[in-house]
Design a protein that fits this description.
The structure is a homodimer.
Chain A lengths: L12 E3 H18 L3 H27 L7 H17 L4 E4 L7 E4 L23 H13 L3 H4 L4 E3 L11 E3 L1
Antiparallel strand pairs in A: 2-3, 3-5, 4-5
Helix pairs in contact in A: 1-2, 2-4
Subunit structure (chains A, B): Homodimer. Component of the multisubunit TRAPP (transport protein particle) complex, which includes at least TRAPPC2, TRAPPC2L, TRAPPC3, TRAPPC3L, TRAPPC4, TRAPPC5, TRAPPC8, TRAPPC9, TRAPPC10, TRAPPC11 and TRAPPC12.
Pfam families (chains A, B): TRAPP (PF04051)
Protein name (chains A, B): Trafficking protein particle complex subunit
Chain lengths: 171, 171
Amino acid sequence: MSCPTHRRPEYRKINKDLFVLTYGALVAQLCKDYEKDEDVNKYLDKMGYGIGTRLVEDFLARSCVGRCHSYSEITDIIAQVAFKMYLGITPSVTCNNSSRNEFSLILDKNPLVEFVEELPAGRSSLCYCNLLCGIIRGALEMTHTTELTHNQTISGGHSKGPFVQEQAYFY
Amino acid sequence: MSCPTHRRPEYRKINKDLFVLTYGALVAQLCKDYEKDEDVNKYLDKMGYGIGTRLVEDFLARSCVGRCHSYSEITDIIAQVAFKMYLGITPSVTCNNSSRNEFSLILDKNPLVEFVEELPAGRSSLCYCNLLCGIIRGALEMTHTTELTHNQTISGGHSKGPFVQEQAYFY
C-alpha cells in the first residue's frame, strides 16, 4: 500500500515549550484534585489512553507502517517512528527478558520534564509522565494487533526530576 | 542589540495534535472539577498567566523584538511573532475603538479547537481557549512595559465550537 501524500509536517507542529508548560499545569491541577499519587498516576494514564486512541489513526495514516510481527518490531516503531513524530525524540530500547516480551523505552532527554525542577513535597510516587504510557496503551489497543497485545499492559513512566531517565515497560 | 544565535527551531517543535488533545483533556478535567463555567474560565486564565510569565523570557530571547511604543505595536507583535512562533498561526488584528487601545485578535483557524466537535451540554459560557488570554496577560506583565500595560486587562477568548472565530481583547 502506498503512503498517501503528506501535508507538510511543519503545519502540524507547534512550539514544544507551550506543550511542556501546559502539561505541567495539568499535572499540578491533578495533584490538587487527588491526594494520592496513585490516583494522579491512574488519571494521567486514563487521559493518555483516550489521547492514544485518537492519535493512532493519524499516526497510521502518516507513518505508513505495516503490520508488526513481533513485540520487538512494535517497540522499535513506537521508539523510532512514533516518539520521533510526536515528541521529536528517539528513546533507546532495551529488552528486559529472554522471552522478548518486556522492553524499556529509555528517554535520555525527556522534553516533558524540561521545566520540572523537582516534584512537589510528598509526591515521591508521582509518575509525572504517565500520560505517555497511557497514550501508548490506547494507541496499541486501537491498532487491533490483538494477537500481539492481548495481555499487554503498560506500567512505569516514573520521573522524579529532569535528571531521571524515563522508562516505559510493556509485557 | 544583536540577536543571539538561535538553536534550530525544529528542535523546539512537537506535533500539534498531541498538544491539542492534551489541552482538551485539561479542559475536561477542569469542567469536572468546577461546576461553573466562570470558574473554569478563571482557572484557565490563571494557568495561562503562569505559563505566560515563563514563556516570555524565551520569547524575548528568540524573537529579538525591541521595546514597543504603542498598543498597536504590541498587538502586532503578539499576532505576527508570538502566535506564529508558538502556535504556527497568525491571527488578524482589528482595532475596536478610536483611542486605539482595544484590539481583537481573530483566529480564523484555531488549532486548539481542531478536535472539538461541540462544548459539553450546559457549558455554553465556557471560554475554551482562555488559556491563551492568560498567557498573553502573563507575558505582558513580565515584560514590564508598565507605561503601556498598567491598566491592561484581557478578557474574551470564547469558543463555542471549531467554527467560531477566536477573539481576544485587551484594553
